[in-house]
Amino acid sequence: MNNKAVIARQVTVRGRVQGVYFRASTQQQARRLGVAGWVRNLPDGRVEAWLEGADDAVEALMTWMREGPEQAEVTGLCVCEVAPRSLNDFEVDA
User: Fold this and answer.
1) Catalytic residue annotation
2) Which of 63, 65, 67, 74 could disulfide-link to 15, CB 3.0 to 4.6 Å?
3) Among 56, 51, 54, which residue's Cα sits nearest to residue 39?
4) Phi (first) and psi of residue 60, to 5 degrees
5) Mean pLDDT confidence for 14-21
6) Cβ neighbours of residue 83 under 8 Å, at least 6 residues apart?
7) What is the distance between the alpha carbons of residues 62 and 52, in angstroms, rounded to a whole number?
8) Are 38 and 52 a contacting pair, CB within 8 Å?
9) How far, rounded to the nearest angstrom, does the alpha carbon of residue 4 sit from its chain's CA centroid?
10) Does the pTM exceed 0.85?
């Protein structure tokens, strides 16, 4: 991460977001943008993610998540402001 202020957001994504490479694509985008955190499937069909990094990078990733990969059909994002945890990488949780 760079010297900009670090922010963190917990994001829940609704829609057709499981089984469409949403987690792997989110990880790829996060690493490209320099965002740390994790992404995982939830039992109810949503995807949950923790995003941490520079404000502009986190915002760019959330913008991408509103569309997701080509096969996804995102119907909404729920975003909560949270305290950063000093994460260093972006992981896909099982």
Assistant:
1) 23, 41
2) 74
3) 51
4) -65, -40
5) 97
6) 8
7) 11
8) no
9) 19
10) yes
